[in-house]
Design goal:
By secondary structure, the chain is mainly beta. 15% of the residues lie in helices and 40% in strands. It has one domain: SH3 type barrels, CATH 2.30.30.
Length: 110
Amino acid sequence: MSRKRVKIPALTVPPTRYEVWWVDANFDNEYDGPARDYKSELIRLPQTGYHTKTTREVIVLAGSAPVIDGEVHVRDLMIIPRVHITAMTPVYTEEEFRAKAQAEKATEVG
């Protein structure tokens, strides 16, 4: 199975919140029968969190990532292998979206 590699965005401070879709093997503890009859498939999982770290093999999402004294403090980490990621899109609160739109408008005018 060939999959297009997803471009991982650069880290930002404060961290940007993303919705990440990734594939994982399906663990089915209820199936009982012949192996040849089992319909195996990969499942797509959504995960939302703050993009806090990227390595060559994984990205790290945090459930919360407040900035305290200029340092990002993280909690509830989720480590996802980069090869399993199928999509990664930013998620903005309404306030963040408005601030971003105003900043873009200011750069167009100025």
